Amino acid sequence: MAPVKHMMNMDHGHMMDMMGSSTSHSKCVVVFKEGTTEAEIKQHADEIEAQGGYVTEMYDYLLKGFSAFVPESYLMHLQSLTGSGGVVDYIERDTTVSI
């Protein structure tokens, strides 16, 4: 699975400038349930970008999903896809952990 838009080398401030300050975004990791197709995952990644967010990394080895700067309005939609019958396994804020 190829990245939709690979923005890993861009700092957070530059990404926020590109997205504009009028929309609130959250950096999240979205993990999809087993059986979710690559096409379904790409559809959600494309929708994030259509709404002004950015996918920073696609995952398809240990996890099926992506990390992205997700507009808050679309994040609520993704959260509605968790639980029984949904395609999203879980969503976590993408943060740095230090020991």
UniProtKB/TrEMBL annotation:
Residues spanning the membrane: none
UniProt signal peptide: none
A biological process term (GO) from this entry: vacuole fusion, non-autophagic
Entries under Gene3D superfamilies matching the protein: Peptidase S8 propeptide/proteinase inhibitor I9
GO molecular function, one term: endopeptidase inhibitor activity
Recorded family membership: Belongs to the protease inhibitor I9 family.
Protein name (database record): Inhibitor I9 domain-containing protein
